[in-house]
């Protein structure tokens, strides 16, 4: 018992005395775990679950990746601290301690550290999470949120504690096995000698493997998949790219500098001489943090770009679904049976007049659309596939060109044997110059068309010259499918009237319905109607998707914190390792300015690498995120690209600011000796 | 004229005249001739290392001046100091001070690369130092892959590859076992005798000092005594050095 007390005392004293390594270590790991706490608490949060249920699943995958990060970071920093203490262990051995004793001290230290980290991470995570939560809610004007909407999460605490215990066990065993007290004098003299340069052929194999994984991931992200599998594909591609990033960073970089070193003419120049071999030395020890930086930075850009992209696209999306204040959809049974009648057209025209005459409404525009599932066959014929499940087919939206032009302020002009075709997935339309519908073949003009986002599948929009063409198509197809039971999408010819209101407040409830019934009551038609109001719809949309921006901003802040942590800790670690090198360089006659210049150059090389990877990953991820966002809203490619650029600039800013700030710490530590 | 002239050098740490001021060197005057091998001995804290730092232009004296080959070190501009140190002086340290990020060959070439020496000349100079130091086999290894004695020979090679006027050695045998120490001292003698390399070595070791032509004893920041080897062999000179040390430490030769 007294022996244990001694260990405890020693461990506590150690922790106090090793400030320069210990404090950044505890702060960094504590913050890393507080990030994890926030993440888990966010998933656990009722408010988020309510608002963005589908996000929760994505966030769980994110949490697992984050957990792996934090674990790697924890082990890396702990082992780094361990490797800095060889001298101390040698001293213990000289004092006559055995491996078991030192191991016990280390174990006690690890336990104390873990407790400290748990306390710090829970406290900081809870408070920071709460502040962020409230701040963001204010910002996004979700006024109804009270402070308690981000309550203390016992789940997050428990998971963190579990991870810490598991990691502590791993760490204690790892430390015990790598503890070498046989030759204490050697260790006293040269404490960091154990690291050997890795063999080139191994690096080539692993590096090529890593490149292969990354490229496979890129290819996966580019290839066409339909909407349901693309989530799965995205996860697979992400995992491949992450593993590849680590492999490439750990191997290719060193190979590049080995290659540079073998070019004698280039190598034996003062600044290259020192920076190339310095880089190799740095790359030998630990590049995992660089790879982590690349992955985190990619995460920041994607999260910011996608969440902003979605948010900005909401209005566009709304506009494509609701071009005007009101939308009246009419579906006539007669139309659906392939027997579209002239009378129906006349009645709709009359209805248009009625609405125009009403004191409440104005600017009435007529529109007609047809929706049907199907696919395009090899010989460029439109095949209706109503029985097919929608995962392999597409959705076809036929639309009157005049209505479309008015709605979106375009000026498409087409002849009656022409179609303007656009899709939310360009692959579908590859090589399509004509399209056969029934017995008629139309010429195809390709264009980017606004496609409503309400259908979360690949959608083809076709503009037709006039309603008669629509009726033709309806005649050709709808009569063939009327008997089929299709649960998912019923093919339908919809006649729509879009109009604005004079004053939203004064419109009596059911006014539109009343006008329709008055007009159609005596026609003997069987019809159904749907009245949509844009303002109501807007509210729905924001309630559904506003959560994305919230979680997006929240996540990106957490990820940025991660970026900050890794950069800071890497700088500190580099500084501690560089201290002795720098003082030797001074002694053998290197100018201080040159040393500073070279170390600056090295640090820049080191920190540019993750950025290169990041931007490569982001460019590769663009198509698949575009598709993912297209599922939720109808983004304009310009808007979406703009949010990507914005996110990229934001990351660069954060990255360089954090780099500059922490490089101050680096130089202070290096110059210290 | 002597190669190295040290005139009335004093060094005070802390502010002069205050209670915290510590006098590390006081009125140190001596000179080293071309081709001479001089050892400086003294206890820890006697000021040896401060003296060596000043000679190596790593530190500035508060009083007096140091001339190397007639040039006053204090007149060197800040920017010239590194170049001067690199080209005129060679350093050997107790802890070898090799850079782990270079292999041994590149460690040796470091000062030449910094001076923009052409590759062909670098190669020639490297070959010239490799032979007497017997380090051919370790050139492609890294400093952490060789023994202490081998590492120190690499460090010596780095120090002399620039053909320095003066080789400064700070406890070069301090971290070596006795056989490595002996072989290093043999190398110093070879360099001194065959290549007329001027050497100034600070050491604790009587055996190491006995290789020099002359030993300066320093105590409390002052030159206390100096003895010449004369016609003595190593063993006899070692004996005399040991006696001088005993005197220096206030002991008597007869107890």
Rg of chain B (CA only): 18 Å
Number of helices of chain B: 8
Our estimate of the beta-strand percent of chain B is 15-25%
Gyration radius of chain A, rounded: 32 Å
Poorly predicted parts of chain A: none
CATH superfamily of the domain at 4-81 and 89-99 and 165-248 in chain B: P-loop containing nucleotide triphosphate hydrolases
CATH class of the domain at 4-81 and 89-99 and 165-248 in chain B: Alpha Beta
Strand segment count of chain A: 10
Order of helices and strands of chain B: EEEHEEHEHHHEHEHEEH
Helix and strand composition category of chain B: alpha/beta
The geometry of chain A reads as elongated
Q: How many individual β-strands of chain B?
A: 10
Question: How many helical stretches of chain A?
Answer: 21
Poorly predicted spans of chain B: none
- Please state the average pLDDT score of chain B: 86
Q: How would you sum up the major sheet of chain A?
A: 10 strands, mixed
CATH fold-level assignment of the domain at 4-81 and 89-99 and 165-248 in chain B: Rossmann fold
* 3D shape of chain B: globular
Structural class of chain A: alpha+beta
The residue-averaged pLDDT of chain A reads 78
- Taking strands numbered 1, 2, ... along the chain, how are they ordered across the largest sheet of chain B? 6-7-8-3-9-10
């Amino acid at each position: 018992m007294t022996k244990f007390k001694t260990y405890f005392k020693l461990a506590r004293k150690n922790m106090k005395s090793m400030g320069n390594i210990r404090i950044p270590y505890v702060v960094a790991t504590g913050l890393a775990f507080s990030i994890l706490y926030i993440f888990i608490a966010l998933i656990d949060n009722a408010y988020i679950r309510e608002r963005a249920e589908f996000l929760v699943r994505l966030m769980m995958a994110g949490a697992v990746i984050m957990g792996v990060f934090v674990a790697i970071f924890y082990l890396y920093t702990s082992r780094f601290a361990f490797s800095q203490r060889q001298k101390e262990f040698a001293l213990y051995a000289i004092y006559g301690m055995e491996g078991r004793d030192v191991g016990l001290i280390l174990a006690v230290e690890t336990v104390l550290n873990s407790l400290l980290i748990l306390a710090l991470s829970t406290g900081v995570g809870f408070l920071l999470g709460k502040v962020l939560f409230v701040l963001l809610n204010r910002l996004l004007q979700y006024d109804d949120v009270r402070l308690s909407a981000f309550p203390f999460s016992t789940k997050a605490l428990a998971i963190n504690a579990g991870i810490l215990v598991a990691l502590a066990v791993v760490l204690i065993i790892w430390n015990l096995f790598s503890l070498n007290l046989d030759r204490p004098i050697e260790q006293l003299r040269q404490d960091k000698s154990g690291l050997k340069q890795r063999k080139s052929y191994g690096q080539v194999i692993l590096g090529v493997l890593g490149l292969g994984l990354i490229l496979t991931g890129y290819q996966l992200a580019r290839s066409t998949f339909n909407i349901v599998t693309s989530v799965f594909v995205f996860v697979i591609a992400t995992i491949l790219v992450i593993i590849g990033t680590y492999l490439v960073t750990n191997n290719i970089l060193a190979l590049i500098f080995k290659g540079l070193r073998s070019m004698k003419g280039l190598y034996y120049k003062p600044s290259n001489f020192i920076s190339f071999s310095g880089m190799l030395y740095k790359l030998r020890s630990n590049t995992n943090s660089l790879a982590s930086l690349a992955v985190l930075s990619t995460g920041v850009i994607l999260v910011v770009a996608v969440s902003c992209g979605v948010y900005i696209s909401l209005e566009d999306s709304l506009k494509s679904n609701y071009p005007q204040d009101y939308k009246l959809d009419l579906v006539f049974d007669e139309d659906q049976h392939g027997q579209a009648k002239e009378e129906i057209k006349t009645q709709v025209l009359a209805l248009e007049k009625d609405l125009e005459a009403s004191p409440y409404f104005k600017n009435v525009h007529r529109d007609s659309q047809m929706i049907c599932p199907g696919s395009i066959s090899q010989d460029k014929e439109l095949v209706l596939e109503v029985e097919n499940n929608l995962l392999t087919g597409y959705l076809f939206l036929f639309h009157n060109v005049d209505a479309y032009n008015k709605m979106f302020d375009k000026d498409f002009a087409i002849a009656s044997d022409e179609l303007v075709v656009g899709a939310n997935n360009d692959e579908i339309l590859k090589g399509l110059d004509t399209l056969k519908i029934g017995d008629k073949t139309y010429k195809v003009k390709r264009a980017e068309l606004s496609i409503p986002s309400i259908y979360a599948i690949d959608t083809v929009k076709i503009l037709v010259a006039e309603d008669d063409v629509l009726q033709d198509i309806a005649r050709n197809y709808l009569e063939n499918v009327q008997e089929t039971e299709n649960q998912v999408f019923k093919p339908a010819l919809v006649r729509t009237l879009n109009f604005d209101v004079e004053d939203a407040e004064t419109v009596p409830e059911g006014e539109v319905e009343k006008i329709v019934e008055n007009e159609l009551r005596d026609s003997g038609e069987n019809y159904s109607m749907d009245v949509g109001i844009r303002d109501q719809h807007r509210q729905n949309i924001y309630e559904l998707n506003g959560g994305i921006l919230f979680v997006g901003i929240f996540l990106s802040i957490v990820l940025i914190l991660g970026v900050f942590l890794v950069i800071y800790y890497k700088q500190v670690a580099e500084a501690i390792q560089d201290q002795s090198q720098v003082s030797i360089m001074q002694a053998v006659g290197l100018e201080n300015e040159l040393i500073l210049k070279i170390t600056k150059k090295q640090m820049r090389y080191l920190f540019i690498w993750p950025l290169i990877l990041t931007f490569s990953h982001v460019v590769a991820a663009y198509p698949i995120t575009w598709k993912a966002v297209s599922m939720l809203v109808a983004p304009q490619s310009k808007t979406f690209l703009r949010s990507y650029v914005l996110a990229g600039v934001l990351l660069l800013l954060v990255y360089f600011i954090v780099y500059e700030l922490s490089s101050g710490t680096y130089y202070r530590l290096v110059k210290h000796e | 004229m002597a190669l190295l002239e040290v005139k009335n050098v004093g060094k005070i740490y802390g502010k002069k005249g205050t209670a915290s001021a510590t006098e590390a060197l006081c009125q140190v005057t001596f000179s080293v001739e071309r081709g001479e091998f001089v050892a400086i001995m003294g206890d820890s804290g006697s000021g040896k290392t401060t003296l060596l730092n000043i000679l190596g232009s790593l530190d500035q004296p508060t009083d007096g001046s140091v001339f190397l080959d007639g040039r006053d070190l204090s007149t060197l501009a800040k920017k010239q100091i590194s170049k001067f140190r690199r080209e005129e002086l060679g350093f050997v340290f107790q802890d070898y001070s090799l850079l782990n990020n270079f292999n041994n060959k590149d460690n040796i070439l470091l000062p030449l690369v910094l001076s923009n020496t052409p590759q062909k000349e670098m190669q020639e100079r490297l070959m010239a130092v490799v032979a007497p130091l017997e380090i051919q086999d370790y050139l492609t290894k890294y400093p952490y892959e060789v023994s202490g004695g081998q590492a120190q020979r690499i460090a010596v090679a780095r120090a002399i590859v620039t053909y320095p006027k003066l080789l400064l050695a700070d406890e070069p045998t301090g971290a070596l076992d006795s056989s490595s120490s002996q072989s290093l001292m043999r190398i110093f003698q070879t360099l001194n005798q065959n290549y007329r390399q001027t050497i100034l070595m600070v050491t604790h070791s009587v055996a190491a000092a006995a290789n020099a032509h002359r030993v300066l004893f320093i105590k409390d920041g002052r030159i206390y005594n100096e003895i010449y080897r004369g016609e003595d062999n190593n063993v006899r000179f070692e004996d005399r050095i040991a006696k001088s040390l005993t005197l220096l430490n206030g002991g008597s030769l007869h107890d």
